[in-house]
Design brief:
This protein is mainly β and 161 residues long. Helix content is 0%, strand content 61%.
């Protein structure tokens, strides 16, 4: 099975996954798009999980990993390169039938905070703009939106009569 690896909304490499008895053999190759240590993240729904550090291989980055199929019975739907930033993990997916190409996600006991780059055009989930809060994460401007059970939290304003 082959999966594309994305970084900031663009495809930069490929992950190959093969069943090997009780294990998965994962091999990833991608272009170096950012300085510093980069990790390979698997994304399923509103969950992002690090699968390992991508190491240098010439001008590219590479990762080979063997995983127990017992600990990981189903592979993630999407794969991205990135790194944790101020408690946020890289995330890409779909929310309310809208593709989110390049975001960050932080999970806490009350739900999640989705951070959308402020420079995305068009801005996904623009109908929730009034609920979004500006935030700077690692020097980049984001608009954050609280999610509860995978649904944007919406403030309801009541008018007094």
């Amino acid at each position: 099975m082959e999966y594309p690896i994305q970084y900031q909304g663009k495809e930069i490499g490929t992950l190959t996954a093969a069943e090997d008895g009780l294990y998965w053999q994962l091999t990833a190759w991608c272009r170096r798009e950012a300085p510093g240590v980069q990790r390979l993240y698997g994304v399923s729904g509103l969950r992002s999980e690090a699968f390992g550090v991508l190491g240098p291989a010439g001008d590219n980055l590479h990762l080979h990993r063997r995983l127990s199929r017992h600990s990981c019975p189903k592979l993630p739907e999407r794969w991205i390169m990135g790194r944790e930033q101020e408690g946020f993990l890289p995330w890409v997916g779909t929310l309310e039938d809208q593709p989110i190409p390049d975001a960050l996600l932080r999970t806490d006991p009350e739900g999640q905070t989705l951070a959308l780059p402020a420079d995305l055009d068009p801005m996904p989930l623009a109908e929730y703009a009034a609920q979004m809060q500006p935030m700077t994460i690692a020097g980049r401007e984001y608009l954050t939106l609280r999610l509860r059970n995978g649904v944007p939290e919406v403030e309801v304003l009541m008018s007094r009569e």
